[in-house]
Amino acid sequence: MTTAAPSARVLEHPARAEIRLEGVLHALSDPLRLLIVRELSGPRPELTCSQIELPVTKSTTTHHFRVLREAGVIQQIYRGTAKLNALRRTDLDALFPGLLDAILTAATHQADRKQSSPSGV
Amino acid sequence: MTTAAPSARVLEHPARAEIRLEGVLHALSDPLRLLIVRELSGPRPELTCSQIELPVTKSTTTHHFRVLREAGVIQQIYRGTAKLNALRRTDLDALFPGLLDAILTAATHQADRKQSSPSGV
């Protein structure tokens, strides 16, 4: 009789002290990753990957979530077979006060400008 | 008799409306480029490339300044044979209020942590 494999898969996350500003800025320098972070800053702080609609393949989506996790921007935990994603807001606010909010505000400003300008800038 | 070539070389810069948040974050996701921006936010707002000491070759230094210019983070103008660099603070503050200051504060926090920790984190 074999024992069941552990069902709780745990993904690696950097500890708070390992999170680097450069890594966070790099993770957020992509429009789709910015979109993910904007979604996670909304009223539902925990979302599965499939609850955030991105115009790319599933493997590209997985890649973007991994970049965010490895940079310390999001936490990913398995619940059953789904990965639940959440911003690491407490860690980021402690390390870099005001940074996440400034980036989220800037992303919202940019999205608003884009919508109100026919040329898209 | 030939006419002299124009001495005023002008480098290309994105207009304010062309500056993208993703590009700014990408430009600032490198430790040396962050260092350049921190220097330009200091008491001397205009510096030549050689006044900012970086532990890399001159061509790599030139590359980093170009990335910052093309992203809209800095302005570069020729004065004689020297390039003078300055932050585009007015443009960045108008587009993304609070963002540049939040990033500069975060960079200072991180540098202070690094100095006070023997492990460098």
Give structural notes:
- The structure is a homodimer of 121-residue chains.
- By secondary structure, chain A is α+β, with helices and mostly antiparallel strands.
- The first copy, chain A, has one domain: Winged helix-like DNA-binding domain superfamily/Winged helix DNA-binding domain (Arc Repressor Mutant, subunit A).
- Chain A has five helices and three strands.
- A three-stranded antiparallel β-sheet of chain A has the order 1-3-2, with helices on one face.
- Chain A is globular, with a radius of gyration of 16 Å.
- Residues 1-7 of chain A have low confidence and may be disordered.
- Chains A and B meet through helix 1 and helix 5 of A and helix 1 and helix 5 of B.
Class derived from helix and strand content of chain A: alpha+beta
Query: What is the total tally of β strands of chain A?
Result: 3
Instruction: Please give the share of residues in helix of chain A.
Output: 40-55%
User: Spatial order of the strands in the main sheet of chain A?
Assistant: 1-3-2
- Tell me the β content of chain A: 5-15%
How would you briefly describe this protein structure?
Two copies of one chain form a homodimer. The first copy, chain A, is an alpha+beta fold and 121 residues long.
Describe how the helices and strands are arranged:
2 copies of one chain form a homodimer.
Chain A: H1 21-27, H2 31-40, E1 47-48, H3 58-70, E2 74-79, E3 82-87, H4 89-95, H5 99-116
Antiparallel strand pairs in A: 1-3, 2-3
